[in-house]
Amino acid sequence: MKPWFVFALLLSYFIAPAQQTVLAEKYSTGNGSYVITYYADNIIRLSYLPAGYDKGENLSDAVILRPRSAHPKALRVNVNGGIISFNGKALMINADTMSGVYGFNFALETGEQIFGGGERALPLNRRGYRFNLYNNPWYGYTEGADNLNYSVPFFTSSKGYGLFFDNPSSGFADIGKSDANVLQVGFSAGELNVYVILGKDYKEILESYHRLTGKQPLPPRWAFGNLMSRFGYTSEAQVNTILSRMQQQHIPVDAIIFDLFWFGDSIKGTLGNLEWMNRKKWPEPGKMISGFKKQGIQTILVTEPFFVETSKNYTASRPYLAVDSTGKPYYLTDFYFGKGGLIDIFRSDACDWFWKFYKKQMDLGVEAWWGDLGEPEKHPADLFHNLRDYGHRRLFAAGEVHNIYGHNWTKMLYRKYASDFPSKRLFSLNRSGFAGSQRYGIFPWTGDVSRSWSGFRAQLPVLLGMTMSGVPYVHSDAGGFAGGEGDGELYVRWLQFAAFTPVFRPHGTALYEVEPAAASFPSEAALLDTPWSTCAKEAIKMRYAFQPYNYSLAYEQSLYGKPLMSPLYYYYPADTASFTATDEFMWGENVLVAPVLQKSATTRRFYLPSGKWYNMIAQQIVEGGRWYEQPVSLNEFPLLVKAGSFLPMDLKQSQTNLSRYRSDSLSVYYVPSDLPSVYRWYDDDGKSKNAIEAHRYEVITFSSSGKNNGKLKLSIRSNGGSFPGKPARRVLSFGFADDHLPARVMVNGVQKKVYTNEDGRAFYFDIVFTGRPVSIDISW
User: Fold this and answer.
1) Would you give the DSSP letter of residue 621?
2) Pairing of the two strands 83-86 and 227-229
3) Three-point CA angle 252, 255, 259, nearest 5°
4) 497 with 459: CB under 8 angstroms?
5) Given pLDDT bands bounded at 50, 70 and 90, which one contains residue 654?
6) Which residues lie below 8 Å from residue 372, measured CB to CB, with a gap of 6+?
7) Closest CA to 468 of 113, 117, 126
8) 8 Å CB contact between 511 and 197
9) What digits encode the pLDDT tens for the residues 262-275?
10) Largest Cα–Cα distance of the chain, in whole Å?
């Protein structure tokens, strides 16, 4: 087979931002040229420049890893006969023009599965589907919704590689739909490139992707609590009444989120006010916010990037709006919320002006922000953006930058927040972004999901698909947002699921007198009837009990790029059944969650990967590698802990918010295993921005020798780290999921008294940990 390139290997050198010499290999073809750049032993970038292509600017800042100056010895790239192979694995057929869209074709093997691509309510294996790469609002969506608010052009394959297309223009992915043997990805504009990431498993590929595009900064601890939210609170009196009901029923609240009624009394005609307009309903916002803060409750306000002509700031916004082809401020005439314009978030002067509204409210005590409609929701093709501050002279049409609009909005907020509040950790809700948005502290939710069982079931593929697309803190409006019939059972099951997702935020439409035609139901657990309220409170209580474990997951993501939640195949890639068990997931590496997804269910079928597991409902050790059918009540769902796991929990935390969190008294559960195991628990003050970088934290390592011949040895070690508020001593109540009472427990050579629970299925004992090493010897 004759090569289709003119010359085999031409070395050309470019200068990176740090004046580093970068090695690149160029191949010329009859219809353009390719450039291969090396980033790591397992990462290369392939760029394609078609002949005559004049819109090849790279407008993305997703990649932060610097390219290599020397050829990685472990990586071999060959180009021959229209096929590009990596370490002997033939991946790409060619790159070409496809009906005016430019992109790449990759060969698919028989049985190969493809995952990722961002928010899709599709099966996790997306082979056989075609969808747009275009951030798209979808009101009231259910199962099968293929193109939602947050696209990520990053895909992983069951054949040991990942593909990241660093192009934010509108495009598509055809994963064996048109041709069963071809993955085709195309774009309307922008630099045509693909990063090929090789890996022995999904862990290596995803962690390499995070090395390429960044990891999420550590959130504030309160972000893991119960966030009180609805569409929407209409007055201070209403908020205080609902909060009082929550507190009377001992339901913790860590933040209150205010939708658009903080700046207006109606849904339409108010976007862009960005001020507490009705002082009868909001008489003293600063005093209200201060009162919340004294109770450890944070205030979060919504903003949108649109300024409608009936808002008080429309005239002032006009110099900063996106424009039409003549350079005049673009005038939206068919936008749901009113006629007006869209701020040009790519201009630094527009960002400076926009930030003034944020800063004013933060001076009143507002702690965090919610960015809505950030796709942007209305983005006509004949609207243009000015990217002169990025070194570009021409105007860019909406489709060329659509998928990084929300990303740049989050980046603006992150940078301004860091400049004016350098010690604070940002919490930024935004339903739209791009690859790399995670390093700017984005907490995306899954959009306006239907308040229905189908909408609920859609959340697993959406969340798991996003986390495997490198977006670790995605979550849903727990309970459902749009429509519905006030199904209490659905609400309970959704909250049980949400308790084991990165953010716990019950949220739904509750407009009542503002919009009588809307289906309105409360999203706060205290406002439900029994038995739903009782079960909902149990789910919230469970969320808070897991706080020490959850917070350590955030540390693992910030340091190593590990997902908080993941599909089973991420940890068990050799187990073929893990690819079919897509209605359950792992919460961290140690906890398996199988939420109940069917109405009136009395049983739940689920799969357990190989090994031993502790069933928290049945309170017994069970064998993995098989399917189970478990009876479930309204207050139950399958929740299992892997043998060998240490699970730190705070059982005191169920009735107060995380501002009162203290790590001086915790429970640590251990599930016995014959195999050795290690767990690292992370703790800090919960708020200092650079706690990890400044080493103001403590990591406590729990190790097990494994239970053999009736003996087990555990050890506890601290890294010696310190932070403000660190307790001098911790009382740790060790619980063992073992119904065989030990003959003796020795802690640093001193025998301890052992207790059993009421049914004798577990035993426990207390130790005092001061930071000095502890050895525990247990014999049966």
Assistant:
1) E
2) unpaired
3) 130
4) yes
5) low
6) 260, 302, 303, 304, 430, 431
7) 117
8) no
9) 999 999 999 999 99
10) 85
> Exposed, middle or buried: residue 766 (CB in 10 Å: 0-12, 13-18, 19+)?
middle
Compute the half-sphere exposure of residue 280: CA atoms within 13 Å on the CB side of its CA: 2
Would you state the pLDDT for residue 31?
A: 74
Q: What per-residue string of b and e applies to 476-493 under the rule 16 or more CB within 10 Å gives b?
A: bbbbbbbbbeebbbbbbb
Residue 710 identity (one-letter amino acid): G
Distance between CA 441 and CA 426 in Å, rounded? 6
Q: Report the pLDDT averaged over residues 546-571.
A: 98
What is the three-class DSSP state of 133?
A: strand
Q: Is the pLDDT of residue 476 over 80?
A: yes
Q: Cα separation of 317 and 313, whole Å? A: 6
User: What is 712-751 written as a DSSP string?
Assistant: EEEEEEE-----TT--S-EEEEEEE--SS--SEEEETTEE
In the chain, % of residues over pLDDT 70: 96
Residues recognised as catalytic: 372, 375, 448
Q: What is the pLDDT of residues 67-117, one digit of tens each?
A: 998 888 888 888 775 677 888 877 877 776 666 788 899 999 999 999 999
pLDDT at res. 21: 61
The position carrying tokens 């509204």 is 357
Q: Give the model's pLDDT for residue 523.
A: 98
Could you give the CA distance from residue 9 to residue 739 in angstroms, rounded to a whole number? Answer: 67
The whole-angstrom separation of Cα 128 and Cα 181 is 10
d(CA 205, CA 145): 27
The answer to whether 266 touches 234, Cβ cutoff 8 Å, is: no
**Non-local CB neighbours of 135 within 8 Å, separated by 6+ positions:** 149, 150, 151, 375, 402, 403, 405, 406, 432
Look at residue 446 and tell me whether its pLDDT is greater than 90. Answer: yes
Strand 565-566 to 620-623 pairing = unpaired
